[in-house]
């Protein structure tokens, strides 16, 4: 018999890589992971975005060239991914700043604040998507 059953204590095991697909993360954990991923995405693409901005501001011809590139649907999807990353990272950053001053650190409030982050960032991203793809 294992030691945990003898003592009445619960046994905690580390999660293996193969268990990740079966493990159900809480909403706050998903939000936190996406906050880190969106930050990394923004950080890695920022030099490329600044390079494109620099080249597009050289002349009217270069601006029109990059405007033509940005009108392609695949480039619009990349722009939309960057917009989502920024909006999610911004909203989740506010959540984390509030948690730094001990606001909403309990389990119930953490779940609610994670839900609020998604409820704000996803509709804002949808609005940008509608504008980006010409709905209005």
UniProtKB/TrEMBL annotation:
Signal peptide: none annotated. It comes from Herminiimonas contaminans. It is found in: Membrane. The keyword Heme applies. This is Succinate dehydrogenase cytochrome b556 subunit. Membrane-anchoring subunit of succinate dehydrogenase (SDH). SUPFAM superfamilies: Fumarate reductase respiratory complex transmembrane subunits. Keywords: Heme, Iron, Membrane, Metal-binding, Transmembrane, Transmembrane helix. Its cofactor is heme. Part of an enzyme complex containing four subunits: a flavoprotein, an iron-sulfur protein, plus two membrane-anchoring proteins, SdhC and SdhD. The complex can form homotrimers. Belongs to the cytochrome b560 family. The chain crosses the membrane at residues 33-53, 73-92, 113-133. Pfam families: Sdh_cyt.
């Amino acid at each position: 018999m294992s030691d945990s059953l003898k003592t009445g204590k619960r046994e905690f095991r580390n999660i293996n890589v193969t268990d990740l697909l079966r493990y159900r993360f809480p909403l706050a954990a998903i939000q936190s992971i996406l906050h880190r991923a969106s930050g990394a995405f923004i950080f890695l693409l920022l030099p490329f975005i600044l390079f494109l901005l620099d080249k597009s501001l050289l002349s009217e011809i270069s601006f029109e060239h990059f405007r033509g590139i940005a009108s392609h649907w695949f480039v619009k999807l990349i722009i939309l991914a960057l917009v989502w990353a920024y909006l999610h990272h911004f909203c989740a950053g506010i959540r984390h700043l509030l948690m730094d001053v001990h606001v909403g650190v309990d389990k119930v409030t953490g779940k609610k604040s994670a839900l609020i982050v998604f409820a704000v960032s996803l509709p804002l991203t949808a609005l940008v998507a509608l504008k980006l793809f010409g709905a209005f």
